[in-house]
Specification:
Layout (H helix, E strand, L loop, with lengths): L6 H29 L4 H10 L2 H5 L4 H6 L3 H22 L5 H30 L2 H39 L4 H30 L14 H13 L4 H11 L1 H15 L11 H30 L1 H13 L3 H9 L4 H30 L5 H42 L1 H9 L8
Helix pairs in contact: 1-2, 1-6, 1-7, 1-8, 1-11, 2-16, 5-6, 5-8, 6-16, 7-8, 7-12, 7-15, 10-15, 10-16, 11-16, 12-13, 12-15, 13-15, 13-17, 14-16, 15-16
């Protein structure tokens, strides 16, 4: 590990920068397009399709292994993603804004996926296995603080701006357009600032001198071959896919469900209310869950802790099944449900991250192999997210969330029997 760069100077901020584009594309844009009049099925479909780079990133991860500095890649992609959001802010005013914004967001997605490969590679290269476990809670917490800043603070501010604009006499559409232009611009500024900060705070992540250089095609072939011949790899792939299967189904639908009118089976919340619940109660619960999970895993060991992590991650999805059937109006009940879900999400997510780092990635091509694992994970989320809107429309919110709970059953079983291998790092 670099002697001049304390992990606390870069791990929290860098993983916050990792989470921000992913969450804005995956969740915040859902509410943005909803407010701008796009149909639910189109929102769920296209905001899932643009996430494809996180699934395909294994294709160019071997090429990043050949570049001299991971820090250079991380900084450049943060600034590129910021510029992309600035372009989205402008594109919202075009007649065919939806198609143009989807194209721009796809560019941000490619930049964000590339950023993730390089940052995860930097994390594994700079930190020992012991330190990986020590700081995994910080990594998970700040990755998901980005989720809460985006779905909490930014969405709340959008609601405030919409209300203020409507009070000034603007139509609902005009108010939404004004608000989301400002929010996309704010996201752009934040990412550019983070990129400039990380230019100096990140360790260099230099490629070792004398490392064997192969043509890109040969390197990719070697990386893929090594990955699919790892011991237990097919069980590990099944585990990665199933771990977030339930989350993939609900990720797009939850904000739509919270915003939908009660007559349509939703809770009828405003952007302000959604942002408040996520950004206050949810934020505190998520950070607490992520940090506690790091120490919990460090104390018990991942193998012993795995089943309990799966339970804590997946069982809180019951909250939305209950919300759909009961349709509570109490702020206390809704806030408590979101606290439970976000604590469980924060606590359980770090288990999957550490599993991929310590069971799947280790070896000669650890950065690329971690990219493979996370790409498979995101494929699960992307495919389920893409069909979730159609499934929700067909079943209604009540039955949809019940079906999701049945979809989580296989991961409970697999987590009890998944084999572990000892890594000699």
């Amino acid at each position: 590990m670099s002697v001049n760069k304390s992990p606390l100077k870069w791990v929290p901020s860098a993983y916050f920068a990792m989470g921000l584009p992913f969450v804005i594309l995956n969740m915040v844009c859902v509410l943005m397009f909803k407010g701008l009049g796009i149909a639910d099925s189109q929102i769920a479909l296209w905001t899932s399709i643009i996430m494809f780079p996180w699934t395909l990133k294994f294709l160019w991860s071997p090429l990043l292994e050949l570049l001299p500095s991971k820090r250079m890649i991380v900084v450049a992609t943060q600034i590129i993603s910021g510029a992309g959001f600035a372009c989205v802010a402008l594109a919202l005013h075009l007649p065919s804004f939806f198609a143009v914004c989807i194209g721009l967001l796809a560019v941000v997605a490619f930049s964000g996926a590339t950023h993730d490969i390089a940052l995860d590679g930097l994390y594994m290269a700079e930190l020992s296995e012991q330190d990986q476990a020590k700081y995994i809670g910080w990594q998970g917490a700040f990755y998901n603080i980005a989720k809460l800043v985006a779905t909490g603070l930014l969405v709340y501010l959008a609601g405030v701006l919409i209300d203020a604009r409507e009070a000034a006499g603007a139509t609902a559409g005009e108010a939404a357009l004004h608000a989301w232009t400002i929010i996309m611009g704010a996201a752009a500024v934040l990412l550019v600032i983070l990129g400039l900060y990380h230019r100096f705070s990140l360790p260099a992540g230099l490629k070792a001198e004398g490392a064997e250089k192969k043509p890109a095609g040969e390197e990719l072939k070697a990386v893929i071959g090594d990955f699919f011949t790892k011991k237990h790899i097919w069980l590990y792939i099944a585990f990665i896919i199933l771990y977030r299967l339930g989350e993939g189904f609900v990720m797009k639908i939850v904000p739509l469900f919270l915003k939908a009118d009660t007559a349509a089976g939703g809770l009828g919340l405003s952007e302000q209310q959604i942002g408040l619940y996520y950004g206050t109660f949810g934020a505190a619960a998520f950070v607490l869950g992520s940090l506690l999970a790091g120490y919990y895993i460090s104390h018990r060991g991942l193998k012993k802790a795995l089943f309990s992590l799966v339970c804590i991650f997946n069982l809180p999805f019951l909250v939305y099944a209950w919300f759909a059937w009961a349709q509570p109006s109490s702020a206390l009940l809704i806030g408590s449900g979101i606290v439970l879900e976000y604590f469980g999400y924060g606590f359980g997510f770090v288990g999957l991250t550490l599993f991929m780092m310590q069971q799947v990635a280790p070896g000669k091509h650890q950065m690329a192999h971690y990219a493979f694992a996370s790409a498979i994970m995101n494929l699960s989320v992307m495919v389920t997210g893409a069909v979730s809107g159609f499934l929700s429309d067909a079943l209604g919110y009540k039955m949809f969330f019940i079906v999701v709970m049945f979809a989580t059953i296989p991961i409970f079983i697999l987590s009890r029997v998944i084999p572990f291998k000892e890594n000699k790092n």
